[in-house]
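Help wanted!
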Amino acid sequence: MNDFHIARTDHTPEVDFRFSEHCLTLAGEAYPEDAATFFQPVLSVLERYLGSVDDCDIEFNFQLVYFNSASTKMLYRLFGLLHDSACTSNRVVIRWHHDPEDDTVLEFGESVHDDFNALEFVPIATPLAAL
Amino acid sequence: MHIDVFSVFRNTADFSGVLLYYNGPLSQNVIATMGEILRHRLGSADAGGPKGRKLFSSFIEMAQNALHYSPDAPGYPGEKIGAVAVGRRGSGDYYIVFGNLVHNSQSQRIRDRIEPLRSMTVGEIRNAYREQLRQEPCVDAASKGAGLGFLTLARDASEPIEYSLIDMSGEAGDLAYFYIQATV
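Answered by r_m:
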């Protein structure tokens, strides 16, 4: 499957899904005008990829520093897809980058960790400037 | 505006600690640009810190709420309008107040959404937020933010959300003006 890339803008994140390396990254900020329109293609391509691989070690780098409420809902669905895959066919590790002072990003990570326990969750405190 | 009127306006804004004021058309670009200005207006100590992030989050939720749900401005088809003021109190807290038109028919729904949040504890808000996050989408067809918007505002605020709905049906059809204020 071809790698999937969307460049970041001031209100949409960089999507860097290197399916060939089983390494997926989301970075930047997410507050698009319509979160469903932005994220639906991302979820679709991820779902196709997950359906095409088996017994793989998949790494997901979460490096978003801000996401609005509508994007949060879409991200929750994205982690649901990864969880389903981890329950059945693959091993998924989530590297959850967050600024040490940012409770909001860490708390969302804890929700993801609690609700999708088949995902291996690795919090990584990274100063904002480095994200 | 005459100079003396503008002088009063400016002095009032100064006295109220206003960092950003806008009243006009809303679009995603206007919102993103204002968001950047807001970050520049915060002191360097707050811009990258928790308060700055919560204030930015509150600004985006309020502004996109207005962009998505307010009816077109009377006489300007397709145009959404809104007013916002962000300022710093002497205590070091920030306030953000947003105003936009709503249909009178939406007023009760807005009250029903905000009123319960006003009496919740921080822990109750966090639990309600997580509960809403787990809800399947499209439970509430009228809500693009899937019901998380007001909960996000409540989560980021350090005091209960304030709001006001002013019936304008006499002058502008079946409309009301909705104000919402948060302290961060």
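OP: Thanks! One thing I noticed: Residues 4-126 of chain A form a domain with the Transcription Regulator spoIIAA fold (CATH 3.30.750).
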